[in-house]
Amino acid sequence: MVSAVLGTEEQYQQPGELEPVQRKSTAAIVADQLRAAIMYGSLPPGSQLGEAELAARLGVSRGPLREAMQRLVAEGLLRSEPHRGLFVMDLHTEDVADIYVARLAVERAACEQIVRHHRVEAVAELTAAQSRMVAAAGKGDAIELADADQEFHETLVRVSGSARLQRMAQTLLVEKRMCLTALQDKYHADVQALVDEHKGLVDAIESGDEALLLSRLEAHMNDALERLNGSMAE
């Protein structure tokens, strides 16, 4: 009975089907804004969050703000220090390596689900996401390219159909972007190689070759980690 219920609730949503409108609470909206501020460096690593100042800037009361900040503490993006307050997490070399260990585990699981159950949807959505990377690369816009890269990986996990993988990936992708933002003056990716690697992932999904897909994903993650480590060492 439990399996039957779970199977009904977790069926993959087909494109174009109507579904209930999700209304976000004020705390969820504030959490999204804080997450974006951390990701883009408006709230840099190590900075302290002043409750009164943030409430005024966001135009919200302290209740939803506190709830939002506690969400980010639970996600690991903020740390609480007794008698001092809340601070944005710092990321060190060992943290970056750990981020990529976790990302590979999450995205590997997502890829397995995609190849086995959601190939058609994945190819369509990831092809569109990769096209946005190509457009950003053509304009030479590093921020837009990073946004498109992030969207590609968010889409990859979402199309797997696993809400739990999505939750885990969300924080990991924000942390990855924190690294890129902090190293923006030192980090220099091979843009064409980056675009080609993502195209290779889409091609492997389309072919249905799970072993090839997982091999390319691991190589992609290792290349990204190597570039980040090189930038941090400068």
Automatic annotation (TrEMBL):
**Stored SMART domains:** FCD (SM00895), HTH_GNTR (SM00345)
Q: Which Gene3D superfamilies match?
A: GntR ligand-binding domain-like (1.20.120.530), Winged helix-like DNA-binding domain superfamily/Winged helix DNA-binding domain (1.10.10.10)
Q: What is the lineage of its organism?
A: Bacteria, Bacillati, Actinomycetota, Actinomycetes, Pseudonocardiales
User: To which species is this protein native?
Assistant: Saccharopolyspora endophytica
- The organism's place on the tree of life at top rank: Bacteria
Q: Which CDD domains match?
A: WHTH_GntR (cd07377)
Designated name of the protein = GntR family transcriptional regulator
Q: Which residues form the HTH gntR-type domain?
A: 24-91
- Name the keywords, alphabetized: DNA-binding, Transcription, Transcription regulation
What Pfam families does this protein map onto? FCD, GntR
Tell me yes or no: is DNA-binding among this UniProt entry's keywords: yes
